Amino acid sequence: MRYKNPNYRKVRGSHILLVSCGYCKTGIAEYQKVGRGNLLRMYENRIIKGSIDWSRKPRVLHCPNCGKQLATRITLRRKNKKAYRMIRSAFNTRRVD
Ligand SMILES: [Zn+2]
Prior knowledge:
Elements: E1 3-4, E2 14-21, E3 27-34, E4 41-43, E5 47-50, E6 60-62, E7 69-76, E8 81-86, E9 91-95
The structure holds zinc ion (ZN).
């Protein structure tokens, strides 16, 4: 995971998830998850690092290894936040902290 996110901000009461490709198991990102429940979207400023170059702001996230689509970039209107909406069943998560 060579791409660190310079905009990452630590949030209290969070934990860290390792997000990996559901097809080939390649690690995609370390992500700071707040609250319980499944990962539906990844907020951009909570991505810690990953194997994708976030600075290029990809509109679609593809696995860098097998090329499968894992997520699409969205803007949340209410908060004007950028996030990636994860495609269900295309990824796995594992708590690592
Ligand atoms: Zn893959």
